[in-house]
Amino acid sequence: MNSAFIYKILLIPEYEEALHHGRLIGAPIDIEDGYIHFSTHEQTQETLQKHFKSRGDVVILKVSVSALKDEFLRFEKSRNDALFPHYYTIMAMDAVVSTWSVPMQADGSHHIDNIDEFTKKGPEDD
Fold this sequence. Notes:
It is a single chain. The chain has helices spanning 12-21, 28-33, 41-52, 115-119; strands spanning 5-11, 23-24, 36-37, 58-64, 73-77, 83-87, 91-92, 96-102. The protein is an alpha+beta fold and 126 residues long. It has one domain (5-104): ADP-ribosylation fold. The strands form 3 sheets. Strands 1-4-8 form a 3-stranded antiparallel β-sheet. It has a 3-stranded antiparallel β-sheet with strand order 3-6-5. A hairpin with a 5-residue loop joins β5 and β6 (83-87). Pfam families: DUF952. This is DUF952 domain-containing protein.
């Protein structure tokens, strides 16, 4: 995969804990599965709607792939046979280049109409 960034969605308390410690061990599902689940630009919105509806406000982390250890990052088949980024170790929070807070709406959804503005490729991308 040729992507300069991958994305991690966290609930606010998970994000605050990672900030406090300076590293991300992962959400409970990540710990259970043995790796940190990420999404590509194209997968982020569907991941948010599928796994975070009615779970509260979230933060999306934009993570620089070049700041991660290559040997621990794998793109593996998951939902709909798409390749999803999985990171098999703890992530230092300095790999995060930006964050985006997404509040939960009254119906439990997260409106992210402008997600492309957050995740769009910039000049530093491939």
